[in-house]
Amino acid sequence: MKRGILAVVAVFATFVILDYIIHGIILMSTYVATAYLWRSPEEMILWVMYLSTLVFSIIFVYIYARFIAKKGTGTGVFYGLLMGLAMGTSMGIGSFSVMPIPCNMALTWFLGCIVEMALAGLWLGLIIKEKEAG
């Protein structure tokens, strides 16, 4: 249980920090240029964003802990890469297909998802691993 909670905290922190770097720094000028697509900062509902990130973190950890048989660093990273590829395809490429966002934004969302999930998977593999024999 303690490892699960620690993993959720590590994964959540990873998502929040990397989201800030990706969206708040790297893509900020692109968001400003496409402001007509987004809520204004005053209209944003940040607690909903953080709550959804927390819920996703819990589910991400639960799937790994419950359904991945061979746990470890390599497995965690691989799990993260697969989840990142799935999320990045949906968020980056899928959004690009229906929204007038610039190509660099879609590509950054795609790659950012892969990096975020791989790093979160690394934390999972380090925190929740197979018990050593002995």
First-residue to last-residue Cα separation: 21 Å
Overall mean confidence score, pLDDT: 95
Tally of discrete structural domains: 1
Number of strands: 0
Which helices and strands appear, and what pairs or packs with what?
Elements: H1 2-26, H2 28-33, H3 46-67, H4 73-98, H5 103-127
Helix pairs in contact: 1-3, 1-5, 4-5
Describe this structure in words.
The chain has 134 residues and is mainly α. It has helices at residues 2-26, 28-33, 46-67, 73-98, 103-127.
What can be said about this structure in brief?
This protein is mainly alpha-helical. The protein has helices at 2-26, 28-33, 46-67, 73-98, 103-127.
Give descriptors for this structure.
mainly alpha; elongated; 134 residues
